[in-house]
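Notes, p. 3: input format for complexes.
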Amino acid sequence: MTFTIAIDGPAAAGKGTISKAVAAHYGFGHLDTGLLYRAVGKRMLDGTEPVAAARALVAEDLEVDGLRTPEVAQAASKVATIPEVRAALVDFQRAYARRAGGAVLDGRDIGTVICPEAEAKLFVTASPEVRARRRFDELCGKGVETDYETVLAETRERDHRDATRADAPLRPAEDALLLDTSALDIAAAVAAAIAAVDARR
Ligand code: CDP
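Output follows (201 residues plus cytidine-5'-diphosphate):
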């Protein structure tokens, strides 16, 4: 059985949390595709040319520590504008999407470019202020020293770069269900996502 659930949306909208819960609910695998770009971004910060880093990427690179920092997030969104980097990461994502047993992939272009044929597509959003607050709380929980205004500015900067790039910009697929989580807690957002997927099964 193959079944692909594509979950796209801007930074810190709740994609990761929703994707994990949806994958657990159906017993599917979950791939956070942002980690691919973060791994390449981290390599770039460490001095490797990004296209070469993307072409050399292996699954174990997604397990390394230090991928969730704000610096790596900014580097990820920069390398994500390079068409050759994106092209190098396509096969890995498509193979995962077709894995036996079902797959949830979350990212920016899953429903539009990587898996336009996905059986279920969600576009998860929330206001920039709500997303920045969530990311700020998450970073504080990890002991990262930052402030809300900085996180909000970084969120807006990354949104702008992701939505305006020429190759695979962030946008909802025409047949994606829009899920605004600004006023939803995790349980309500997950329930809404599962209801949307059930409607396609
Ligand atoms: O966790 P968060 O939503 O903050 O970011 P992420 O999903 O880890 O993605 C980091 C960066 O990778 C994004 O800002 C995008 O520029 C890029 N990305 C992308 O271009 N395409 C994807 N499918 C996933 C991430």
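The two ends are 12 Å apart (CA to CA).
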